[in-house]
Amino acid sequence: QVQLVESGGGSVQTGGSLRLSCAASKSTSSNGCMGWFRQAPGNERGGVAGIRTGSSYTYYADSVKGRFTISQNNAKNTVYLEMNSLKPEDTAMYYCAFARWVSGGCLAARGYDYWGQGTQVTVSS
User: DSSP letters along 20-71, please?
Assistant: First the structure.
């Protein structure tokens, strides 16, 4: 089973930046996705950003386009989420996830097989 461990969360003021990291066990899949999801209290889990494991093609939720950047280092089995211009609305628990096979985009939680424990991001005014 693939294990995922997130790190890099914290508390920042509006306009600040954070960089999340996700360390994963090695995967042979080149047809899947690595993704970042978030869930705030009382809200459903939603996709933030995703990246194709083989091609590094990226996907972003409309709410974070232009502010967040997802990237991966396959040699290190690590995925990153650079978050800039943070807003209070970004406050949530952020989860890293891996899908072995996904058709279409990489932002649907139902397509993912493995999940990390989550890291908290809090943005205050």
Answer: EEEEE-----SS-EEEEEEE-TTS--EEEEEEETTT--EEE-TTTTTTEEEE
Q: Specify the pairing of strand 92-99 against strand 33-39.
A: antiparallel
Q: Is the dihedral of CA 71, 76, 77, 78 positive or negative?
A: negative
| Contact between residue 93 and residue 120 where contact means Cβ atoms under 8 Å apart | yes
DSSP class of residue 85 equals: S
pLDDT in tens, 58-95: 999 999 999 999 999 988 889 999 999 999 999 999 99
Distances (CA, A) of 9 to 31, 74, 80, 100, 107: 28, 22, 12, 25, 20
CA distance 83 to 42: 23
